[in-house]
Amino acid sequence: MKVTKDRIIEVISHYGIQRGDVVALQSSLSSMGEVEGGADTVVNAFTEVLGDRGTLIVPTFTYSFKVWNDFQPFNLLVTPSQCGAISEAVRLRPEAIRSNHPSHSVAAIGFFAREMVKDHIKCAPLGKGSPYHKLSQIGGFIVLLGVGQDRNPLIHTCESLAQVPYLCVSWSNTKTGIDIARSSDDNGTLSEVEVREVPGCSKGFVKAEIVLRERGVIQYTKMGNANIQVMKAENVVDIILEKLASDPFFLLCDDKECQICTRRRKYGKAKPGAVPVKGSSSH
Ligand SMILES: [Zn+2]
Q1: Does the predicted model carry a pTM greater than 0.90?
Q2: Number of domains present in the structure of the chain
């Protein structure tokens, strides 16, 4: 059966999303099965529920690093989102505002759009002051539509807020902990930007789901064939920071072949004073 706009509105309204809310949507269109009107229908459903005073945010990450994307440069106006058809549909809306971050830009529509994307370039990709951190501070929601917690950028925000002891281990394994991203301006002039605290592997974030589920902060439902998780961003941050305070490595994956998690665990455990102080979870 085709998923319609009315059905999407019915589901998200039932699970607590209302007019005026701020929602960060992570999604997989194909997971839903057949959607009447495609990605735009999903975007229309969300903006209709959120109304004039609501805000919708999507990741439009471009991963413009040498190690991930062979330096495909980020251009604010033209580089497509690497985060699926729904995020690309938001980016292409005339009213969308995209943040100017060379690796982890987001696009936002609505009342707080400008505020949410502001100064992203000055922050760690998903760290303090980034759009996902702001989401947790203004009572926003995370909606995972057809994707799991391993695609929840807010868990990376928690790693950064907790200052877990492995943050400085970058993908390119430099001693500085910096990865270089490349961006281009309208004239095609390329520039290289130093990025700190680049998010690592997120396969281990499925363990975060277990913790969040036990604390009862995830609402589960279905839309078409897709599983949906809805949660308040501040609940996620509070609970994951609490967990990281007692076990700073719990978000790293357990795959022995995973190079970055292996390097991060090894570096972090060798670092003197690696275990963060409990008080660091305040925000
Ligand atoms: Zn890993």
Answers
A1: yes
A2: 1
